[in-house]
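Support reply, case 0932

Customer input (verbatim):
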Amino acid sequence: MSKGVAGESAGAAIAGHPAWIVEWTVVQNGRESSFRVTDYAEVGARRLVANLLANRLPGLSVEDVYTEA
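Our regenerated output:
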């Protein structure tokens, strides 16, 4: 998860306000897919991260799969 600033064209946020960016990659059926979601509330972004971490592969620790910039 990283923190940015909403731009003029963000639509859902007021320009200049914080924006939380969550990026993740999943592998399903041997195929890798990457996703990126911008949330304008930290609590919403952290909830998404918690849900993604709850679904990590067995044997992987949070430190193995999560970084925050």
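We compared this against your earlier run and they match. Two observations from our side: The first strand starts at residue 2 and ends at 5. Residues 2-65 form one domain. Please reopen the case if you see a mismatch on your end.
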